[in-house]
Amino acid sequence: MQVQQTGDVTRDWYTRFAAHEARGQSAIYEAWAVGVAGDDEVLDRIRELPRPKRQPNLVFACSRLLGAPEGSYGEWREWLLAHWPAVADAALHRSTQTNEPRRCAVMLPLLARIDGPIALLEVGASAGLCLYPDRYAYRYDDGSVLGDTVLGASDVLLECATTGPVPLPARMPEIAWRAGIDLAPLDADDADDMRWLETLIWPEQVERRERIRRAIEVARREPARLVAGDGRERLREVAAGAPANATLVVFHAGTIVYLGRDDRAAFADAVRALAADRGRTHWISLEGQGVTPGVQPDGTAPSSTFALAFDGDLVAFAGPHGQSLDWLG
Ligand SMILES: C[S@@+](CC[C@H](N)C(=O)[O-])C[C@H]1O[C@@H](n2cnc3c(N)ncnc32)[C@H](O)[C@@H]1O
Q1: CB–CB of 291/259 below 8 Å?
Q2: Nearest CA among 297, 253, 266 for reference residue 105
Q3: pLDDT recorded at residue 151
Q4: Alpha helices in 164-240 (DSSP H)
Q5: Tell me, what's the pLDDT at 148?
Q6: Model-level pTM greater than 0.85?
Q7: What pLDDT sits at residue 146?
Q8: How many CB atoms within 10 Å of residue 144?
Q9: CA–centroid distance, residue 91 to ligand 1 (Å)
Q10: How far apart are the CA of 142 and the centre of ligand 1, in A?
Q11: Residue 137: helix, strand or coil by DSSP?
Q12: Residues 32, 35, 38, CA angle at the centre, nearest 5°?
């Protein structure tokens, strides 16, 4: 769908967000984004922020964190103008770190085919909720549930609709070690961090919010090692902690989009070099189409879907939140 662009980057960002991201997902965010795009007074405030911080998702979440009413654009606008300094401060100090455990449903078919033990290392881990694929339960289409084998049946059920020859897993992967790197890891035991994580879920998405609350409990029971830092710089050092007998799986989801193009290429080279040096190492990438260097979409999948790649080869397209998986023939 074409949306009218004006050449004003901030206004156009909100217009695109309304049309391509919020529509069908959050009527509240869609109305707020349409409202902002046509409101010069609010746009002037938002333009005071450095460009990356003008992100609709970030501004909206910061406002809700601080108590903005989740109602009409008019109510929200009035609140925002009255509380702008606090919202701006929150936007400057926070970033969007949405953690979506359902992405495990998309990675599980790949993980289940790898002989264990597996050492799982996520770059851009946020609170680490994607580090527990073996602790969740899964339902693909209307099929039976593949449940947790260690902690009893998991109450985190991840449902995923599939098309194509998905190699549906018949067993759980054996994960012996889990670690994550993030610029600013969120702590499952920190109430403020978890409130931010929940606020990043859009207002009407009650089911997603429930799911991450339950996944947070899993992370609390079995804390993973989360390292603060840049994934490009700390990859080798953190990977060195993986047990030598384990197959290392480096993965990232919705993360390297935050790097510039050259940095994405340098990161991909670093993962390949690590795999070549260490051996027994695989690379799973779940990113927007065209984001992971060398993983070229063929133009057949909707642009909103993510590309799933194994060792640099495109294997499937997936819903951005892991809600669907379209395996390539
Ligand atoms: C949108 S979140 C995705 C979280 C998680 N991968 C998931 O799929 O649920 C992206 C995360 O990547 C982190 N991030 C961005 N650039 C990074 C970098 N260069 N090194 C490490 N983490 C980074 C952010 O802090 C954020 O927590």
Answers
A1: no
A2: 253
A3: 34
A4: 191-199, 206-221, 231-239
A5: 47
A6: yes
A7: 66
A8: 8
A9: 16
A10: 31
A11: strand
A12: 150
Quote the DSSP letter at residue 260.
-
Pocket-testing residue among 131, 182, 232, 256, ligand 1, by greatest number of atoms within 8 A of Cβ: 182
Query: Measuring from atom 26 of ligand 1, which residue has the nearest CA?
Result: 97
Q: Give the other-Cβ count within 10 Å of 186's Cβ.
A: 22
* Ligand 1 center to 75 CA (angstroms): 32
pLDDT in tens, 176-201: 999 999 999 999 999 999 999 999 99
Report the distance separating Cα 43 and Cα 52, nearest Å.
Answer: 14
Measuring CA to CA, which residue among 277, 268, 278 is closest to residue 311? 268
CA–centroid distance, residue 196 to ligand 1 (Å): 15
Protein residue with least CA distance to atom 23, ligand 1: 124
pLDDT < 70 stretches in the chain: 1-2, 144-153
CA-closest residue to ligand 1 atom 8: 253
In tens, the pLDDT along 10-67 reads: 999 999 999 988 998 899 999 999 999 999 999 999 999 999 999 999 999 999 999 9
Say how many residues make up the chain: 329
Domains (range + CATH), the chain: 9-93 (no CATH), 103-327 (3.40.50)
Question: Cα(39) to centroid of ligand 1, in Å?
Answer: 31
Distance from the alpha carbon of residue 182 to the mean position of ligand 1, in angstroms? 6
Ligand 1 binding site (Cβ under 6 Å of any ligand atom): 95-100, 103, 123-126, 130, 181-184, 230-231, 253-255, 258-259
In ligand 1, the atom with minimum distance to the C-alpha of 230 is: 20
